Amino acid sequence: MSPSPDATAGRTCPLRYRYGPQAIASAPARAADVLYVIGGLYGNVAALDVIEQMAAQETGTVTLCFNGDFNWFNVDDTGFREINARVLRHDAITGNVEAELPVEGDDAGCGCAYPPEVSGEVVERSNRIHARLKATAQRHPDLLVQLAALPMLARYQVGDCRVGVVHGDAESLAGWRFAVDQIGRPEQATWLAEAFGTAQVDVFASTHTCEPVLHQAATPRPSAVINNGAAGMPNAGGALPGLITRVSARPSPHAASHGAQIAGVHVDALPVHYDQVRWLSLFTANWPAQSDAHASYFGRISGLRAAAAAC
Fold first, then answer.
1. 142-159: per-residue pLDDT in tens?
2. What does the buried/exposed string (b/e) look like for 301-310 if buried means 16 or more CB atoms within 10 Å of the residue's CB?
3. Which of 8, 35, 248, 289 is the most exposed place for a label (fewest CB within 10 A)?
4. Separation between Cα atoms, residue 269 and residue 267, nearest integer Å
5. 3-state DSSP call for residue 210?
6. Which residues of 107-138 are buried (b: 16+ CB within 10 A; e: fewer)?
7. What is the pLDDT of residues 159-196, one digit of tens each?
8. Strands of the sheet with 29-31, listed across from one edge
9. How far is CA 137 from CA 66, 83, 99, 143, in A?
10. The domain 5-302: what is its CATH number?
11. Are 126 and 311 in contact (CB under 8 A)?
């Protein structure tokens, strides 16, 4: 009998990915004046340049927290080293992409834990993309040591707002319960309220599912889940560019695409208007036509169409 699709590499969620909301409650809180949460950079150095420029234009002190999957398309040695050297100067937590780079073997594939609605072809291509990235990573053992040491979550205090930063959801590094097609379901409401209560946060900032979400939960204290989608790729079917999450009591000097006020602070999604021509050139140098990443992502990256879920 052939194995279930859920048992294949790229669909499983390893036990070591699981932490639960209690771990978020127990994490030490770091104070931040202006917090940028940057998920799904995917190796886009052009987007990283713009994000750093945006931070420099803030009037307050900015904390950059990269919440995983900052690697993906950067399979060349120069791109891999530049992205990781620059990201690791800041706060960072691991995404499934980074979590699988130091691991021997490929049992979890890309570690995305894709749901059943994502096609097998997409999953297989993602596993091959990750295998190529992993081969590059092996040539940079100093960076692998740093990536292996990254935590799976972080906690911040921004004014009166308690922020839990995760890659996936409140339960797991590769969880999908903060996805746009999951979070608003009535059967999720009780779980979500309990997750906020147990984690003792007002905001969950996540990424992983690669589509933006802003969902205000039915909790005694005002609370919200914000998922930036992807910092390094277009969002919402190309209607929005790259996005990052900003949390601060200070108003943003940059126009937000959407946002809310939670616990007295601004919780906003900020567009990242990176140099598209430059990024397409860097992308196609590594991933020309007929390659796995080109097949899965070029339409989305070029703005021609929405792509399947990212890793």
1. 999 999 999 999 999 999
2. bbeeeebbbb
3. 289
4. 7
5. coil
6. ebbbbbbbeeebeeebbbbbbbbbbbbbebbe
7. 999 999 999 999 999 999 999 999 999 999 999 999 99
8. 29-31, 153-158, 161-166, 203-206, 224-228, 212-216
9. 18, 12, 12, 8
10. 3.60.21.10
11. yes
In contact, 238 and 298? CB cutoff 8 Å:
no
Q: Are 286 and 254 in contact (CB under 8 A)?
A: no
Q: Identify whether the C-beta of residue 133 lies closer than 8 Å to the C-beta of residue 101.
A: yes
Judged by phi (left if over 0) then psi (alpha if -120 to 50, else beta), residue 18 lies in beta
Token pair in block for residue 49: 């340049």
pLDDT by residue (tens digit) across 87-114? 999 999 999 999 999 987 665 455 566 6
CA dihedral of residues 99, 100, 105, 107 (deg, nearest 10) = 100
